[in-house]
Amino acid sequence: MSKIPFFKFFTKTKFSVSDVNKYYVGVKPQPTLNCGGHIEKRLIKNSPCHPELVSGSSHRQKCLAICTKKTNVGLKAQPTLISVLPRRRSIVMQCLRPHSPRRIAFTLAEVLITLGIIGVVAALTLPTLIANYQKKETISKIQKVYTVLNQAFKLSEVDNGEFEYWDVDYSDPDTYFEKYWKPYLKINKICKTYKECLYPSNSPWYYLDGSPFRMSVIALGYRVSFYTSDGTYMAISLVNGGGTDEDGNEVPIVYSQSIYVDINGAQRPNQLGKDLFMFSITKKGVMPLCYDYSRDEINEDCSKNGSGRSCLAKIISEGWQIGADYPWK
To answer: Dihedral angle at the C-alpha atoms of 17, 20, 21, 27, nearest 10 degrees?
Structure first.
């Protein structure tokens, strides 16, 4: 058996695959490829190649010889499976690994730290973002209601004369509603029970401080409750007050034309100043309740310790803004 020159294992001397086939036995002959580069010897999977074999070893290590840096255009390098060393021959041999770009990735610890930072930032910023969105949505809806009611009021005045000459029977809110309001509003449903209005009870609302606001969804003979086409609950009332308050004090009946509006219907929070707002019907048009109060009176009522009846007046007086001193939380 011919011996391959020793220096060919350790130099990049140019030689072809046929040279490999020539000196190593037990290998299927490969077509000669005139390679302008050198032979790379790679490990076969699951068959490690030792750098040195002890004399007398009965097994042969196998590597993959691949012709690289080829100069022949159109020819692919042919891998050749070779037996590195014949039996009882000791020589130092290094199996070169293929050159591949380095892969960069995050460790598990880095990923967890990043997620933790994102969670902390989200916990700090999300409540503020949600509150700002809710405020803008509230302003948008109440502005629309304000515009719709005043348009209906003006149209009613065209057909029924000026407001101060309206013939109002305070004991008959149904006739009042049918004549002066129903033809000028897009009404989806008139409610006869609080369940028809989708509320969980007949008194579902609260003041700003969390105490119950004892106004009824349905009060036959006092007001007419209905839903508009955009899902807004409205109640046009001719009578306010009456009965007793939470302290057991008698509340006098007040005859006035007013409108209660829940901008998101039966959905929460069902609270004065947040989704429930109150309007007065006056000769100036549909105005926010307490519109004629002083600024101090409005601010005192629209506070955490107030009732919230004047909150709409506060919003409008501040240019349709919910400011930092607004009792939103």
So the answer is: -110
